[in-house]
Amino acid sequence: MIRLRAVLLPLLVLSASLCLTWVVWNHERQASRKELRSQFEYTVSDAVGRVEQRMATYELMLRGVQSLFAANGTIDRERFRRYVNALNLDANFSGVHGVGVIEWVPAASKAAHIAGMRQGGIPDYTIHPDGQRTAYAPIIQREPFVGVARSSPGFDTWDEPVRRAALEKARDSGMAALSGKVNLQIGASPDRRPGFIMYLPIYAAGKAQDDLTQRRANIIGWVYASFQMHDVMASLYGEQPPGISLAIYDGVEPLEAALLHRASEPNSRRAPAIISANEYLVVDGHDWMLTMSASDEFRSRLGRNAQALIAGAGTGLSFLLALLSWLMMTGRERAMRLASAMTRELRENEEKFRAIADCTVNLEIWWGPDGKPRWINPSVEYYTGYTVAECMAMPDFARTLIHPEDVSRVAPDFKKGLQGSRGEDLEFRCVRKDGSLLWLSVSWVPISNQRGDFIGFRTSGRDITERKKSEEKIRELAFYDTLTRLPNRALLLDRLRQSMLASRENKVCGALMFIDLDHFKTLNDTLGHDKGDLLLRQVAYRLSNSVNEADTVARVGGDEFVVVLGNLSPDEAVATSQTEAAGARILSVLGCAYELNGIQFRSTASIGVTVFKGEQTSTDELFKQADLAMYQSKERGRNGICFFDPAMQTAVLKRAEMEVGLRNAIEENRIVLHYQAQVVDGNYITGAEALVRWEHPERGLIPPGEFIPLAEESGLILEMGRTVLASACAQLALWAASPSMAHLSMAVNVSARQFREPDFVDGVLDVIDRTGARADRLKLELTESVLVENVQDVIEKMSALRARGVTFSLDDFGTGYSSLAYLKRLPLDQLKIDRSFVRDILVDPNDADIARTIVALARSFNLGVIAEGVETEAQRDFLAVAGCHAYQGFLFCKPLPIQGFEQFVSLFSSGKRAEGRSARNAGRNVGTGTAS
Question: For residue 202, what are the β-bridge partners?
Fold first, then answer.
């Protein structure tokens, strides 16, 4: 009985499965036929639609040509030619082989018509074919002209019945009309192909066309376009779709004589048609018949060929199910034995795994294929604060423990684990029972049984919280300023690039603000660096609260901050106004008092701004522009905003170029000295002042006013000062050997920066010793700016040099930091009245009083006094009356090169009054520069 059931059940399963297969196969066959019919009907409809749409396009084109003549009622051949050429038929109207004009010529006007055409540029024009007719319709022009007889000028289309029928229909209806089938010859080829011609009538301008009589009376011609049907269809389809045969006939019968187009030649081998259809088209009142058939290749392109697959697969599955039912009936007992053995083995392996996992410090979890934990090791309590029992009781254990912000990152790998794939190691935050956070690094490993079946996956996690804290600390050190917690230069550059990219994409402006605190060094030097750091932190806080959250505030070093403003107006003028308002707000906030551990302190800032749009300018260039603007703000008096102007860049480039030139001039000994005499009582030369000049290879002699300020700023004044002092001392040594020059002293200007050098005294004494110059003939002229800082150091340096005989003159006295205390303490030998007082001494009472006061001060402190810039006898006389008897200026001589100066001294010192006057005049005329 058991054996019988083991055979009957598989046979029953096989029979049922085969019946089901037949049902499905039959349904698929019916559906395939229905879809084939639907797709074929769509193809036929598409073909008809394409033809109708293309013919409407041709008619629209031809109506444009018709309107060219209808406007004035005459036929202008030249205008027609230009118009057709402008249509560019090959590119815009595929399939059109030519467009032409036909003129209506009654028999009585034939001779006049021929004469007019010959006069119009066709000397051999005639109407052909010959013969007497009541009227003619000759082609008078065709574009493009191809020289074919039936398309050439003079061919009478009225003589051909097919064309005449279409011409009459167009004339009588006033609408477009198609000719019947005509065989057209295109170009020089002797072959003729089936085609058709479309005509549109041209009526006399202003004449009525309301009825048939009026239209026949007022006709003056036609415009036409000729087509080969093969080319028209090729322009619609290109190559014929595979599996489709298409033919078009003139009329409503599929006669071979009426065939206009066939996709393949009649005698070519074609697969038998499985479906076919006929469609009738009416184009401009003319009947066409379109026939289409499809072969098996068309059906195969539909992609629905499942009948054979269903039959094969269904039959195979039927036998497979029968086999499985037989195995099930005979193998149940065997399967139960196998399952018992596998269960026992699984339990043994699970016990081993638990014994190992319980000993590890990692968080080990075994997940089932349903995503629920099957086993958790005791380490879970250390990691999460929950016991194993609490974790197993949670409805969604994973989502409870993973930080909500990290769930989206973990979910894909968890899903991979459920699918049996090994996931990438993940790092995420775990929310412990007490609410604290713990960073975990978790790896995922699938678990399979001995047969390789997926039965779950295992995760192993370890605590990486300390490592994450270290990484965060490193990141902060790399991208944030340790003092203010603001972004540093590295992060600022990244934020600036992002702002520039957003500016380009959103077509808006942005701005870069460079902020420098005014007199911050003074704060550090007077109150200490701890107060300076406290100020920087407060400035950072105020700046961060003065801009939008999307903007960036960064510290780039020292007392320098940068603000990046984004999302400003697209209009640069409006963006500039917005930036100026933001800068004014920042200046106002930074100008409020600061509390520095009990000390009230006020500070100001100088801001340089450059506005950008997109990424047209590099980040480095933006920083340079903002930096230039900031320094311009400082030069304007600080506590202000200055926007970058390209003129600043030009000035900086010019200054840089001049600095390079000056440096080269010092190295190449093109810094030379000119000498201006210092005279006592107008008759006796006591010395000379050495005045520096730059011999430029292109600009010639450059006065000191153009390069001394640059030398001061760049530090070149130090090297230049040493060079000038060495040259002056060497000249003093040479004069000492000349009886006529040995009595002269040499005045040399010393800059404040040069004087403040620690080795200044040693440098001067070294030059004196090397050159052999007499120290008592060397006079150093100091400006009052030397006295601003560390007066005691100034006194010590002057005293050390005076001990060797060097004398000192206070230059430009009265223009700077003049103080009686300085005059009393400093070891000076002479005061020098500045040229600004001497210039207006005769017309400005204040200048006159100042000059008298300086002379009186010098006398009271037992100092010598000399006036510079003396240019007239009257100025000298005034100074002499005031008690000043030493002079320097153009009245005596201009600054001269050494040869000219020595010649001047020789003449001036001859003792002869006439020669003295001559020498004085020579000194005025020989001069090549201005006094410094």
Answer: 221
99 phi/psi in degrees, rounded to 5: -125, 135
Give the pLDDT confidence of 167-226 residue by residue, as tens digits: 999 999 989 999 998 988 766 566 788 999 999 999 988 788 889 999 999 999 999 999
Q: At what angle do helices 520-527 and 529-544 cross, to 10 degrees?
A: 140
Encoding tokens for residue 60?
A: 């629209």
SS3 608: strand
Distance CA 657, CA 649 (A): 12
CA distance 560 to 571: 29
With a pLDDT cut of 90, the percent of the chain lying above it is: 37
Task: Given CATH 3.40.50.300, say whether it is the number of domain 480-644.
Answer: no
360-468 CATH: 3.30.450.20
Backbone angles phi, psi at 24, to 5 degrees: -65, -40
Q: How many CB atoms lie within 10 A of CB 252?
A: 13
Residues ≥6 apart with Cβ < 8 Å to 686: 678, 679, 680, 743, 744, 745, 886
657-926: CATH class = alpha beta
Domain ranges of the chain: 71-238, 360-468, 480-644, 657-926
**DSSP code at position 246:** E
Burial of 397 (0-12, 13-18, 19+ CB in 10 A): buried
Report how far residue 728's alpha carbon sits from residue 675's, in angstroms, rounded to the nearest whole number.
10
d(CA 414, CA 444): 8
φ/ψ region of 797 (left if φ > 0, alpha if ψ in -120 to 50, else beta) reads alpha
Is residue 439 within 8 A of residue 429, CB to CB? The reply is yes
The secondary element (H helix, E strand) that includes residue 579 is: helix 572-590
Do 791 and 799 form a contact (C-beta atoms < 8 A)? no
- Out of 59-73, 419-433, 613-627, 885-899, least confident range: 419-433
Give the model's pLDDT for residue 359.
Answer: 55
What pLDDT does 295 receive?
80
- For 485, the 3-state DSSP assignment is coil
- Check: CB of residue 186 under 8 Å from CB of residue 148: yes
Cis omega (within 30 of 0) for bond into 272: no
Q: Which H or E run contains 119? A: helix 110-119
Sign of the CA dihedral running 109, 110, 112, 118: positive
Q: Nearest to residue 281, comparing CAs of 266, 273, 292? A: 292
What is the number of other CB atoms lying within 10 angstroms of the CB of residue 895? 28
Fold match, 360-468 / 657-926: no
C-alpha distances in Å from residue 559, one per residue of 525, 540, 546, 667: 14, 10, 18, 36
Angle 919-922-928 from CA coordinates, rounded to 5°: 140
- 691 within 8 A of 682, measured Cβ to Cβ: no
440 in Cβ contact with 383 (< 8 Å):
yes
Side chain identity at 892, as an amino acid letter?
Answer: F
Distant-in-sequence, close-in-space partners of 783: CB < 8 Å, separation ≥ 6: 749, 751, 752, 810, 811, 812, 816
Strand partners, 429: 439
d(CA 723, CA 727): 6
Two tokens, residue 778: 């060397």
Q: Ramachandran region of residue 812, left (φ > 0), alpha (ψ -120 to 50) or beta? A: left
CA dihedral for 304, 305, 310, 311, sign (positive or negative): positive
- The band of 385, judged by pLDDT with boundaries at 50, 70 and 90, is confident
Question: Which carries the bigger pLDDT value, residue 181 or residue 823?
Answer: 181
Question: Do 866 and 646 meet the contact criterion of CB atoms below 8 Å apart?
Answer: no
* Confidence class for position 29, pLDDT limits 50, 70, 90: confident
Superfamily name and number for 71-238: CHASE domain (3.30.450.350)
Are 438 and 382 contacting, i.e. CB atoms less than 8 angstroms apart? no
* Cis geometry, peptide bond prior to residue 129 (ω within 30 degrees of 0): yes
Instruction: List the structure tokens of 371.
Output: 């995503």
